[in-house]
Specification:
Largest sheet: 4 strands, mixed
Number of strands: 7
Distance between the termini: 14 Å
Radius of gyration: 19 Å
Helix content: 25-40%
Structural class: alpha+beta
Strand order of the largest sheet: 3-2-1-4
Strand content: 5-15%
Length: about 240
């Protein structure tokens, strides 16, 4: 192999493949390792998926080209203090989330948070108001925590908070283009992102339950996938 050859990860039931128009984003849901593949490397990866337990690839919606001009708030928006009971519960959920992030092997951090975020996936869905209050409570508490709380930690803690109250949430993890980026959030009972900016709609979820069962007759709608099924491309 040449010096610039790319070592492909092994496709397993823990890997998710997101296909954009020109590239493939591979996310390992145990380790959080993320790689972007293009060209022949992507072709070989898609060929290897055909004979693996990995979920089928997800086609990513193309984001509107912004040329880097999307605006982001320069300061945090104010959050009204939630009721005391919600503050205490949100603090416990956030502490549990941060403990799960820090305690254990660093290479399995993403997997621990993902499992925690999906704790209540089989519980009755929370109402929109309930989900909104849970997220805002976590967001309010996070401001006084001396620790990094980004979208993954925030959405995980909110999902856990709802589960502690016997309600489920739809935790989502998705990919967007222009440029390729990842984000985590929760959805309400209607599938709408909760307390998220409008551009969250640019992200395509790659962890939806429908993606967890692979249809043996499904074929990825991607040019590289068609090439992978041609003679001479059967093996990675």
């Amino acid at each position: 192999m040449g010096a610039n050859a790319v070592t492909l990860p092994s496709p397993t039931r823990h890997t998710r493949t997101a296909l954009t128009g020109r590239a493939g984003v591979i996310v390992n849901y145990r380790t959080g390792e993320t790689v972007v593949l293009t060209g022949d490397t992507l072709t070989r990866w898609l060929a290897s998926l055909e004979h693996s337990s990995a979920p089928a690839p997800v086609a990513i919606r193309e984001s509107k080209v912004s040329w880097g001009t999307n605006e982001t708030a320069a300061r945090l928006e104010s959050v009204s203090p939630p009721p005391w009971a919600w503050r205490m519960a949100a603090a416990a959920a956030l502490l549990t989330t941060l403990a799960a992030r820090e305690v254990g092997r660093p290479g399995k951090r993403f997997g621990r948070l993902r499992r925690l975020a999906e704790t209540g996936r089989d519980l009755p869905a929370a109402t929109t108001a309930h989900a909104r209050l849970a997220l805002l409570s976590v967001r309010w508490v996070a401001r006084v925590f001396p620790a990094r709380v980004a979208c993954l930690e925030e959405s995980t803690a909110a999902s856990l908070l709802l589960a502690l109250g016997g309600r489920g949430s739809a935790w989502r993890h998705g990919v967007a283009t222009d440029p390729i980026r990842l984000h985590a959030w929760i959805c309400d009972i209607h599938g709408r992102p909760v307390e998220e900016p409008e551009h969250t709609g640019d992200y395509t979820p790659i962890n939806e339950p429908t993606d967890l069962k692979r249809d043996p007759h499904a074929r990825p709608a991607h040019p590289a996938a068609r090439q992978a099924r041609q003679p001479g491309h059967d093996q990675p």
